[in-house]
Amino acid sequence: KIINNANHSNSISFSSDIESSIKKSNIIFIAVGTPMNNDGSSNLEYIYSAAKDIGKYINEHKLIITKSTIPVGTTLKIKEIIKTQINQKKEKIDFDIANNPEFLKEGKAIQDFMYPDRIIVGLENKKLKDTFKKLYKPFSMNHEKLIFMDIASSELTKYAANAMLATKISFINEMAIMAENLGADINMVRKGIGSDSRIGYSFIYPSVGYGGSCFPKDISSLISFSEEKDYRPNILSSVQEVNKNQKKYFFNKIMKRFSNDLNGKDFGVWGLSFKPGTDDMRKSPSIYVINKILELGGIVKVYDPKAMQIAKEHYLKDLAGVCYCHDKYDVLDNSDGLILITEWPEFRSPDFRMIKNKLKTPVIFDGRNQYNIEELEQIGFEYYQIGKNYKWK
Length: 393
What we know:
Layout (H helix, E strand, L loop, with lengths): L1 H7 L9 H7 L2 E4 L14 H13 L4 E5 L7 H15 L6 E5 L9 H6 L4 E5 L5 H7 L10 E4 L1 H32 L3 H9 L20 H13 L6 H24 L8 E5 L14 H11 L3 E5 L4 H8 L6 E3 L12 E4 L11 H7 L4 E4 L6 H7 L2 E3 L9
Parallel strand pairs: 1-2, 2-3, 4-5, 6-7, 6-9, 7-8, 9-10, 10-11
Antiparallel strand pairs: 3-4
Helix pairs in contact: 2-3, 3-4, 7-9, 7-10, 9-10
């Protein structure tokens, strides 16, 4: 809706003409993808290509801003690439460069852009502060949200933010395993520590682990470029390892319940995307769980409000034994158990009696701790959560 309104008011236009777009612009944002290489480092091919295009077609002074998530030092490398291209043309053209990382959550990108918590800007030329204040004035009306710093610090700030959030997720998941082993309830522990204002409740929900395009990629990239400077980030390496093992921990609950024999067992899966509000399945725990069930001779019926098509076309494309259902209750017919992976709103308050009647075995494996264990046990379910293995009274 916002894009359509801007289009109708001529506030936005689209073009595939790189040369014309560069020459007509005063400010150029570079916001291309930086996917992860096999070794965990960032693939900077696209951002370097964009820099070469800018250097090739730049015709007068421009402000060039890197928006992509990039390893520390990349913005200055881009500056050198543009300079080299200009020198090859044997022209004298000045330009300024800055880093302005994005902090957008998948599924809430427009809202986060319109109402940012903060706007980080890394500068070489401090005289550009006024330019950025004018640029972002519509988004800083109530209070000043701009935070200026040097370029290297701004680049690292983006990684540090995602690393902190990923660390909180892996921390609570490690506590969940400890709670289960010690006979405690991680749901109670979460409430106990979250009530501390220094900790808070955000990102301390026990789960089957994080996925998506940002956390796995950014943690791997941060470790990679840190190691290039001869430092191994021990905490972040552990965060990565805990998250990797969390999927195995959850899957082992299924294996243990069925005595390590899934051959011929039929499972219904709720949720394919790595989080609600998006069809993104990159690094989603659902891929691991579904693959393992199929490897061991099981059958899987799946339902997701948004990710069904991309699952068919890409992530689960070559997997035999996957049935795609159009309704969340259809996956339950004659299934030996329900596995909840993604906490979509429509999964929060289902008809449990209908679920029980449809399932061959009234078993729920909940990777997000969505339900009340006492309620489900009264109905007659076996209910397996993250971080709890006893009935709390």
